[in-house]
Design goal:
The complex is a heterodimer.
Chain A (H helix, E strand, L loop, with lengths): L3 E9 L8 E10 L5 H14 L22 E2 L2 E2 L21 E5 L8 E3 L2 E2 L2 H8 L22 H11 L6 H5 L6 H12 L8 H14 L10 H5 L7 H16 L2
Parallel strand pairs in A: 1-5
Antiparallel strand pairs in A: 1-2, 3-4, 3-5, 6-7
Helix pairs in contact in A: 2-6, 3-5, 5-6, 5-8, 6-8
Chain B lengths: L1 H18 L7 H16 L1 H30 L16 H4 L1 H25 L4 E3 L5 E3 L1 H8 L3 H28 L8 H28 L2
Antiparallel strand pairs in B: 1-2
The chains are: A alpha+beta, B mainly alpha.
């Protein structure tokens, strides 16, 4: 086992209606090769052995592609380090004797389920409001190469599509805005010819749903872009603004 | 916010260009400034634009206030630890505070000069044609003989600089203008503007105080 001793200050909340509080947990024998989630596994193992309630936290693939893990670590979404999710954060980023704050995503639209686990289904509802192309799949599929797409556009659309919907953008934003997520979902389709027929309706519907969920307003601090594990660019927010402005002034 | 903000940016340029005349403290310069002040408060087109300006200031402040309330509501439970410095500039994080300070400053500033020019009892001087006109210059010069007043203006111009440092380029992003070729230019111009314009504004009270 490892040789780091840490003090964790972790948010504990029994359920959605509990007020919640920060609690201190000493953890010994942390190896610098552990991921942050593995360190929490060690702590939970310790808590279960002591007959205490383990800490609830979101996790799934543990290889940075599912968007399930979250955690606001020492004041940053997915902790220190760029272009990584919490499961890709290693304990070597910390020093022996460190005190580490661990909090859930803080957003009115992401209510806490328990401890560090939040309900991010607001993102699903934004996606369902227009983040798709209506394709008839009953035997009349078009050959992929029949519609030429410039390589640059395809690349940019793919960059936007790498969004894993983790919610780090919302958690990081001082305004609790979901613009980077919504922009990525609008952009990945707006850049492709298949997405154009529904572009207007999509931009309007997804922004409307975003506002309805209670997210804040974008003030272009750029914090989301810095903390995004997939490096989604602010360029996509500008594209969403263009799509939305154009759709707003031309809608009937 | 973006449209009114950019309009206010253009106003700053016009206001600065007019006020730099204050640097000429000779009797000739004083007369020219007073004639300029009379033109700015009486010429119909300028008056029309000034109403658009009042509206823009109020809208920008009120909209900013509403958005800030919404943004506060979007995060009901604050973080125990937040490392804002890791991912955003200080200015971008404090736009509401900076804006509020500027609004308070505007009230003081307009009470002292704008209100006096429009509604106050000002000393009367003669213009180049021998006609009577209000002597705003003397009011300005008198105000800037007080050190605390000069200091207030210098500090508030620093506040304005930080507001512009984020606001200038942010307005373009809000309007959807983000392009690999042009955005770096917009950002550079924004930084240049945010430094040069407030420094030139701050130079006026300092200059008038030193040469009082």
């Amino acid at each position: 086992m490892g040789n780091m001793k840490l003090t964790l200050k972790i948010w504990r909340q029994n359920g959605p209606n509990d007020k919640g509080r920060m609690e201190n947990y000493p953890v010994n024998d942390v190896s610098e090769d552990m991921s942050f989630l593995e360190m929490l596994d060690v702590l939970n193992d310790q808590l279960v052995r002591e007959g205490k309630d383990p800490i609830a936290f979101d996790h799934d693939c543990r290889e940075g592609i599912c968007g399930m893990c979250s955690l606001f670590i020492n004041g940053e979404a997915h902790g220190p380090g760029r272009g990584i999710t919490t499961c890709q954060l290693h304990m070597r980023k910390f020093k022996d004797g460190d005190t580490i704050y661990v909090e859930p995503w803080r957003s009115a639209a992401f209510p806490v389920i328990k401890d560090l686990a939040t309900n991010r289904s607001a993102f699903d509802r934004i996606q369902a409001a227009g983040g798709f192309v209506s394709v008839n799949t009953s035997g009349n599929l078009v050959d992929g190469n029949a519609v030429p797409i410039p390589k640059d556009d395809a690349d940019k659309a793919f960059d936007a599509a790498t969004c894993i919907g983790c919610g780090a953008c919302v958690a990081t934003c001082p305004n609790g805005s979901a613009m980077l997520f919504t922009a990525a979902k609008v952009s990945q389709l707006a850049l492709l010819p298949q997405g154009r027929p529904e572009a207007k309706r999509r931009a309007l519907a997804m922004v409307e749903q975003m506002d309805k969920e209670g997210f804040g307003n974008c003030s272009n601090t750029g914090a989301c872009e810095v903390e995004c594990p997939k490096g989604i660019s602010l360029e996509h927010i500008a594209r969403l603004n263009r799509e939305y402005l154009a759709a707003s002034v031309t809608k009937e | 916010m973006a449209l009114t903000g950019l309009f206010l940016v253009t106003f700053l340029v016009a206001h600065l260009a007019g006020n730099l005349q204050l640097l000429d403290m000779s009797p000739e310069g004083q007369r020219k400034f007073n004639e300029y002040a009379r033109f700015m408060t009486t010429f119909p087109l300028v008056k029309a634009v000034s109403y658009l300006l009042y509206f823009s200031i109020l809208f920008h402040a009120f909209d900013g206030f509403l958005l800030t309330i919404q943004n506060r509501k979007a995060r009901p439970v604050k973080y125990a630890k937040e490392n804002a410095g890791a991912n955003r500039s200080w200015a971008s994080n404090n736009m509401a505070l900076l804006g509020t300070l500027i609004l308070v400053f505007l009230v003081i500033h307009m009470k002292h000069f704008w209100y006096e020019m429009h509604f106050g009892e000002l000393p009367i001087v003669k213009d180049s044609q021998g006609q009577e006109m209000k002597d705003l210059y003397t009011i300005v010069a008198a105000a800037f003989t007080q050190l605390w007043y000069v200091a207030l203006y210098v500090v508030m111009m620093a506040v304005l600089a930080f507001h512009l440092l984020h606001g200038f380029q942010s307005a373009f992003q809000s309007l959807g203008i983000n392009h690999a070729r042009y955005t770096p230019i917009i950002k550079s111009v924004g930084v240049f503007f945010a430094v040069v314009v407030p420094v030139l504004f701050a130079l006026i009270p300092v200059w008038m105080f030193v040469n009082r």
